[in-house]
Amino acid sequence: MDKTKIIPVILLAVVLGIGIIAYTFYAEKQNVAKENQNLKEERAVLVEENNALKYKISNSERERRSMEQRLVAIQKSLSDLEQEKKNFQQRLSAVIKERDALAKKAAEMGTGVEGIQDRDSGAASVEAEERWADFVKEAATLKAKLDLLKKDLLDARMKMAELDKVNKEWSIKVDQLTKERARLQEEMKLKERTLRNISMDIVSEREDKAMALAELKKLRSENLGQKKEAILANKEKMRLQQLLKDTLERKESLEDKIIDVENVLKEKSLAFQELQDRLQQAISGGKMVASDGSASVELPPIIVKPTSPGLRGLQGRVIAVNHQEQFVIVDIGGTSGLRPGALFRVMRDGREIATVEVIETRDEISAADIKEVIGGFTIQEGDIATIR
Question: Residue-wise over 347-375: b if at least 16 C-beta within 10 A, else e?
Fold first, then answer.
């Protein structure tokens, strides 16, 4: 396969691979960001619930302390009532003993001196009854107070039982809240660790993405350079193809000219042979002229046809040179009106370097003998030939 076709395919595959990797990183980043947002929302909810639980626990602790203070106050009131009850019972027992002692004393005294006895007993009984009435009244008051205290004690005990029940319930709730708080703290720690791991993964993914982007940028730069090289290679290829085409065309043209030159050379050889034969005949048929013991051969005159005025300034190019036979081939011929005997000036860089004479013509080319060459020069292919 052509290298210019393989390179774009490889570059396309590399770009597609990098695009897939970048899309995968982007999708993972979106998922991680979404999960991170969800974790933040859950953390906010857990923090709010934790604060609410802390508030409830603090309220429970305040109520519990308040209940404990009330319980202490009630227990103190009960202890005071018990002490007061004991004191009353002691006083009551003392009054009963005193009453019994008085009654016994009155019975022992008998009925001896009646007046005195009646007066004394009457005074004693009145005093005893008054004292008894006071004690009874005080006892009734104390009993009423005792009943109230018993009722308050019963209420206090009932409240204590309720408080104990509420306290147990609150203790259970506090334990549950403590356990829930510990569980939430564990969950928060776990989620914080997860969030930290996710953050580290995000940082790692960002670094990987940065590396991938740098690699993509590098590949794009290389791709751009390779594209430029491919464009230059294609241009060079087109130039070489055009050059090859021109070369082939020139080759074909030169081959045609070479064939024509070979034909001209063959004809020139035949013409040389013919001219040689004619020259031999002319030599054989010439007159001998003797003068002072010497002889010379009189040759037939050479007739040079003048150049047609319409051909003056006609210009061609030397396409072949035969230095051995001393003739050249020019690229103009009979179709341009050229005839044998025409003289050409051979020019190079605007300077005349030689003179040639046409001896044979064809349609597009002509053969010409080299008549004169200026010293230091040699006729070459590409020199300009101009009619004198």
Answer: bbeeeebbbbbbbbbbebbbbbebeeeee
